[in-house]
Amino acid sequence: MRISGFASGMDIDQMVSDLMKAERIPMNKLTQQKQLLEWKRDDYRDLNKLLTDFRNLSFDMTLQRTYSQKQVTSSNTKVTAIASSTAANASYTISDVTVATAASNSTSGFVTSGQTLESSKGLWEQRNKFTSGDAMSNMWTSKTVTQNDITIATETNSIKLAKGAIDTTSINGNGEITVNIGGIDKVYTVTTNTPVADLTDSQVLLDENTGILTFKDNIPAGSTVKGFNYDHFAFEFSMTTYNQQGEAVDETFSLDGTASMEDVMSKINASKLGVTAFYDEQSNTMMMTKREAGTFKDASATAEIEFGGLFLTSVIGLNETNEQGGTAAQVTINGVTTSRNSNTFSVNGVTFTLNENMSGESAVISVNNDTDKTFDAIKNYVEKYNELITKINEKTSQAVYRDYNPLTNEERESLSEKQIEQWEEKAKSGLLKNDSILTSGIGQLRSNFYEPLSGATGAFNQLAQIGISTSANYRDGGKLVINEVKLREAIQQDSASVMELFTANGADSSSQGLARRLRESVGTTIQQIEARAGNSMRTNQQFTLGRELLNVEKRISTFEMRLQQKESRYWRQFTAMEKAINISNNQSMQLMSQFYNNG
């Protein structure tokens, strides 16, 4: 129990607080040390992210595609082309173009005159609207459904069965269903043509199309419609198309009688057939078109789109002999006439696209090196390098403000947010000043630029020869500058040699291209930083600063326990003093009382 100054009149709380402030000075230093370690770790990791990004970019700069981009021009928009990085610089004359056509097939008149087939309604429900009555009747297959028990969760007069398009005569084998209401089974006779208002207590109305059962009165919650079997109607159809290799692509579709024309179209469109199906209920027309122009069927096939099943062939009336299109493209390339299955085809790494028929005119396709993309890639690489070394130079040369230590919680309370921000900016400054890992790493990066490429086979073996050199201003800290005119001229003169300067893959550093050298040097620096500052995937035990943090945290925990003990001791001492003063005061009052009585 703590006694707070009632006898002595002193502010014991404040006195203990002041004493503990003095005791906490070593603790504050430990906390500040921990904060400095965390800031230093974060600074390392921020730089490591930049180094990792640059290493990834260096990998891209070792790839041939970075320097071998192609520029393709066409003199006529009726033919366009793109080229891969491996395509040779060349010119192609395209003439006498007949574009490939996509195969299509359509049908209409399969709905009875005066009727409208609603595309969103079930086909079985609208079966009487089709002109081909016999085919429509014959296309259905009957499938048995085992309906599980249905528990009525909320009082209602209707429930829905698992399937629609129902054969009423098959319900439970006897046209009856059983409902357990309050523990008593009640049998209902199924009817399909009695209005709800005219139902008796022992009848239930079935909507054959949707599978909804409707009772005359509500069925109480908790009741159970006992499971039973019934048959519902379904149908199937199939289609076959052909891919670019001439291989048959088959698809069989199985649908319930509740499926609509929209469902049929959706199934076809989502299939692997490569066909777009469309139905217009206003004109009663169904059309199917292959998405890819050209002819792909084999010699034994009758059409590009083949149909199977009564629904498509007899009910809808699709016939392969009515197919339109599905023709190959005809084109003359540099005087040689050829046939292509598609409007898009490749020759020597160049992919041509025939957009329109062309007779009596031609298109000249020119493939050349895209010097702009190569220039932009190299320029971007140099800029990223400059950004990297600028950031590292800033960190390793920051001023150290030794009078600015991390703020304690008490110090933060007396400052504004702006003041805290300004203070911490100075407290964080210089944590990596003259850091050996970073200064060594940046020194290695600089030396990579000065070393010529040993064994170069092209016109260039040094970056200075293509317009890339170190800044003459020592304040730039080794930044690179680009003579853009000289770089463009070098790319146009010998792009292969420029590429070799960056990508050469030799056995040692002197015979490796710049991008490979930098990638290895940056990788070494990244590993050294991770050994010191770790990364998000490492635990504190796995890197140097982490282990130092663990040690400081352990010391903080131990010191915290000591502070609690000291604070308890101070309170015990002051409490004992208060008790002694209180006893003394009581004795004085007793003496004074005796003197007063004797007088």
Short description:
This protein has 599 residues and is an alpha+beta fold. The longest helix has 55 residues. The mean pLDDT is 88.
- Give the oligomer, counting copies of the same chain as homo and different chains as hetero: single chain
How are the strands ordered across the major sheet? 6-13-9-10-11-12-7
Segments where pLDDT lies below 50 for 5+ residues? none
Radius of gyration over all CA atoms, rounded: 44 Å
* Shape designation: flat
| Helix vs. strand class | alpha+beta
Number of continuous helical runs: 13
Note the beta-strand portion.
15-25%
Helix content: 25-40%
Spatial separation of the terminal alpha carbons: 41 Å
Number of strands: 25
Q: Look at the structure and give the mean pLDDT.
A: 88
The major sheet is characterized as: 7 strands, mixed
